[in-house]
Amino acid sequence: MFRKIVVISTLIFAMVNIAIAQVQQTKGTFVDKFRQLDEILPTANTYRTAGGEPGHEYWQQRADYVINATLDERNHRITGTVQITYHNNSPDTLRFLWIQLDQNRFNKNSMQNKTETYNSPSNLKGFDEDPARLSLGQLRRMQLQEDREFGFEINSVTAGGRDLKHTIVGTKMRVDLPTPLRSGNTTTFTVDYAFNIIESDVMGGRGGYEHFPDDEIEGGGYLYEISQWYPRMGAYTDYEAWTAKEFLGTGEFTQEFGDFDVTLTVPADHIVASTGVLQNPDDVLTEEQKDRLEQAKIADSPVFIVTPAEALENEKEGTRDNKSWHFKAENVRDFAWASSRKFAWDAKGYNQGGTTQPFVMAMSFFPKEGGELWEKYSTEIVIHTMEVYSRFSFDYQYPVAISVNGPVGGMEYPMITFNGPRTILHDDGTRTYTAAEKEFLIGVVIHEIGHIYFPMTVNSDERQWTWMDEGINSYLDSVAGREWDYNIGSTEPRDIIDYMKSENQVPPMTQSDSVLRLGPNAYTKPAVSLNILRETILGRELFDFAFKEYARRWMFKRPTPSDFFRTMEEASGVDLDWFWRGWYYTTDHVDISLDHIYQMRMDTKDPDIDYARRRDEFNQKPSSLYITRNQEEGMRSWVERNPDVRDFHDENDQFTVTNKERNAYNSFLSGLDERERREFERAVEEDKNYYVLEFSNKGGLVMPILLEFEFTDGTTEFMNIPAEIWRRNHLRVQKLFVFDKELEKVTIDPRWETADVDVENNHYPRRIIPSRIEAYKASPRNGLKQRDIMHDIKTELKDPDEDN
Amino acid sequence: MKRLLILIMLIAGAFPASVFAHQQRAAMTKVLFNKNTGNLEVMHRFYLHDTEHAVQMLFDKRADIRSSADTQELFANYVSQRFAIKPLNGPELKLRDVGYEIERIYFWVYQEVEAPDNIEGLTMIHNALRDIWTDQVNTVNVEGRGDLRTATFEGDVELLSVEFTGQNNP
Predict the structure, then answer these.
(1) Which of A222, A331, A374, A453 is 20 to 30 Å from A535 by CA-CA measure?
(2) In chain A, what is the greatest distance between 2 CA atoms, to the nearest angstrom?
(3) Max CA pair span of chain B
């Protein structure tokens, strides 16, 4: 008994020790913002090196899939069989496997559903009590979950005809292996399953069906975007072993690579868009469609495989027949597809060159609701995205790149993306789109196709770290968006300042489901930070080299944040621990203030020069108000009225030079050795202007100090002081600057590069920065660029007399 | 137990799926004690794309906030009706509508009132767009009176208060 207690208390003691084992400053107030990330980053090992590269014993698991599935359009249901071949490349022996059952999160008993908090403001206006509200959307969702069972129905798990014991735990399923799977070995098992497809508009999610009640076909039309649709292997990694984190809806996916052989049976009049390459075009396409596909390979602009007119005709009636589409995909981490009789389909070949994938087919699938907007832009943007992303990372790795229009606003899968923008239907039956919707289409297609690089090829763990794919991808989609059109509204550093100075936020290094305010946290802030790293801190050459090296090292592998941080640092040759610490591990913001400027002038030591200067300085001070007023009243002093009392002291002042000072000067000069004398004389002759600038760091985040000096002669000069200036004192620093010219004013970060939250303290002398309201009152502006002129242009000119 | 009357409204459900920044469903409001003017200024910043969808749900399927000054004004009024502010130790402030404008990717709505003296904090309500989207998040930064304070309106939050600390002058 006694022994037991001792053991327990030892354990507790050890835990406390671990909790406080970090290096701490326990005297004074010094904070080392440049402390290396030694205690924070995981210790390097043979799987992941200290340089952020896969180590010499790096391993990852692999899973190959053979899937046969049928889409039941009448019941919105998938039934299927998946055969999974799992390769254990880890050094460990596995006695059980974890399978991901992502559909289970839509079940009414899921952890996500049970932990969803009440989500509606019950008070509309005023400080009085008003009734609470439930949204119709919430009600519809609750009713749908009552009426239909969501989540996977697992009918059997078998291997070699024998049932395998399986245990479902939320969105995961443990499969117990009859014999342990040793390192280097492979096991194959089969799962027989089915699930009811969610209605995307009601349940949300990253796939589902969309209903078009106004379509001519009886009961309305349907469009399916199918994802998380087969039981798939959980991730087993060197850094976490099996992923235990439940799928709660925000933290996306962590996946293994593998090959897919998929046969999809759908209504015979459907067109299927899918990850992979179609294996049986003769069975599912007409001769004309196959000819058009050949033409598209060498076309200058996209060629329709199914024209909008054909799609419109096709969507008017259904069929009871089925067809099977057979696809194969190699080395992908997931597989998704879309199916509808509403799809128009266009394609254009892209010769990217290189050795891995010299030819890529870019394709788009869209219903009439996508219309002209999609016809014009989607496929071309797919190609543009590949051109830009490949320049910054590696050649696009797959044979097809697809953009599908359906209910999902924007979602990525290997080779295929789901994108939401639509046209507006008018009463006369025509369709137009606004400038905003066009920008949305350009932005979302770039973003989702970009995800085929990050994380579909550079396979980061989205369940743990949203920023690793969303932040990096948002940085690159901004680059690609601007290369499409400089006028596209892109993220600027200043767009993140209100978020970064606010109190309610968490560091980007937070598990995905615990992130507060996901958009600015995991998308905008990391994207802005990488942009600053590229444009301001490293420069384009160093950044682009390091980033490309990260992409090269980790393509088809699984990087963690430390691998990214270490690679960017090692390949750029610049210590960036302070930058990762500030931007990714804290909630500090940038606010550097220029508090004071002290001007100094070199003394000549020559009393005849220096004393005269002192007299000038003295005389520049305002004279006494008392004396001025007496003089204004005509009063004269006794001494003025009686000049005979004046003596030596009235003719000389405190600045009068005597030989005593001149002797001292001469003895100072003769005391200098030859070198000191040359240096002194040169400094006196040059007579430069010396300024000490005093800066304070009010935001906490250490950053470079970007300075613009404006001189009295009208010229300007820029200077970039590296962030390391803050290494000995992160709160306040002074720095001496020497100029030939006289300084008139100084501005910190004049081009708004660093997301500095307070512009007012960036100016010396201070200037009044009007608030937005003050500026607005001074000149109200109108956003004329933003009208739906495409529709308004059709407005008939009215006869002014008619109105009267 | 407090009995709540449940009112069903046409309101879009909360989709936890966060994919691409299309509709952000996030607004930022700056409440500024402006030393230069002596006013308490309220500057609401909405994503233009959010407002574009919102006005079609709120007013009219064809409402177009980008081109129609009427729709812009209607939306600005809608916002000012759903934002309220009250000192901890005083009555609700009567905010004046100053105006609205489109700037790059944003739609701004401006309000102001003479800044009251001797206040130790504010209670606020910000329900704009939260009556149509349950996942709308409105963040308010209160600046210019002591340390910056933040109030985040999301989920079932109705009223939020901030207290000022680090004030140099009351």
Answers:
(1) A453
(2) 131
(3) 50
Residue of B nearest to A205 (CA): B17
Closest to A137 (Cβ–Cβ): which among B11, B82, B150?
A: B11
Half-sphere exposure in the Cβ direction for A135 (13 Å, CA): 24
- Binning pLDDT at 50, 70 and 90, where does residue A524 land? very high
Q: How confident is the model at residue B11 (pLDDT cuts 50, 70, 90)?
A: very low
Give which of A111, A115, A117, A124 to mutate to test B binding, by max B Cβ within 10 Å.
A124
Structure-block tokens of residue A476: 């690159």
Strand A162-163 and strand A153-159: the pairing is: antiparallel
CB–CB of B66 and A248 under 8 A?
no
* Range among A472-476, B54-58, B150-154 rated most confident: A472-476
What are the angstrom distances between the C-alpha of A83 and each of A66, A153, A729, A778? 5, 16, 61, 69
Going by their DSSP bridges, the two strands A431-432 and A303-306 should be labelled as unpaired
Close Cβ partners of A166 (under 8 Å, ≥ 6 residues apart): A99, A154, A157, A173, A174, A175, A176
Distance from CA of B59 to the nearest CA of A (A): 16
Q: Closest chain A residue to B112 measured between Cα atoms?
A: A773
Residues of A in contact with B20 (CB under 8 A): 409-411, 443-444, 447-448
Q: What is the pLDDT of residue A503?
A: 93
Q: In this complex, do A772 and B104 lie within 8 Å of one another by their Cβ atoms?
A: no
* Residue located via tokens 């000054």: B69
Concatenated DSSP letters for A473-537?
HHHHHHHHHHHH-TTS----GGGGHHHHHSSS---SSS-GGG-SSHIIIIIIHHHHHHHHIIIII
- Chain-centre distance of CA A774, in angstroms? 32
| pLDDT tens digits along A288-319 | 999 999 999 999 999 999 999 999 999 999 99
Contact B101 A780 (CB under 8 A): yes
**Residue whose C-alpha is closest to residue A345's, from A370, A319, A327, A316:** A370
B86 contacts in A (CB within 8 Å)?
127
Q: How far is CA A236 from CA A98, A137, A469, in A?
A: 9, 38, 19
For residues A456-479, average pLDDT: 96
Predicted structure pTM score: 0.89
pLDDT in tens, A714-743: 999 999 999 999 999 999 999 999 999 999
Judged by CB atoms closer than 8 Å, whether chains meet at B13 and A141 is answered as yes
